[in-house]
Amino acid sequence: MYTPMSDLKDATLDHRRTHGCGSHPVVDGAQLAAWAIQAGARSAVEIGTFLGYSAACLANAGILVQTVDRDPVHVALAQRHLNERGLANRVNCMTGEAVEVLADLPAGEADLAFFDGMEVSVAEIEVLARALRPGGLLVVSNVKLGSEAAEVRELIGGWQPWEDGEVLFAVKPPRAS
């Protein structure tokens, strides 16, 4: 049974004001979980843990999540929130630069790759694409932020991407690199 995570979304917004980090939750964690379920996801990799809102929503839907954030404060807070909700056993929170940390994940095993960082970069999308299985779903939040957004769109252009506001979606083709 899915439990709403609105209190965790609110906590993230409060943290944004007090910590001054600019972190923000994905607009609708339940919708993210629904997209993941519709895509048949059983595992996910995420860049941008923040306080764990999206990871908690995915884990609450039965998905195993690998998430990374460069800020150790965010990772500690996310782990606390996940523990409080009984979801810590479904989420592996990692601290560090996403490109370095995720390089160690097995290639082609994630069903869902989710970018929830501040400014999208080609290097981060490349590491997510490497982790994603053929036919897996890539979801990029904040797609309009950052200087590399156009290059990201070009990188996954052959994936038949589509956009909905600030979110870009793409299904990895069977033979994509």
From TrEMBL:
Pfam families given in the database record: Methyltransf_24
Single GO term (MF): methyltransferase activity
UniProt source species: Streptomyces phaeoluteigriseus
GO biological processes: methylation
Top-level EC class: transferase
EC number: 2.1.1.-
Protein name (record): Class I SAM-dependent methyltransferase
Keywords: Methyltransferase, Transferase
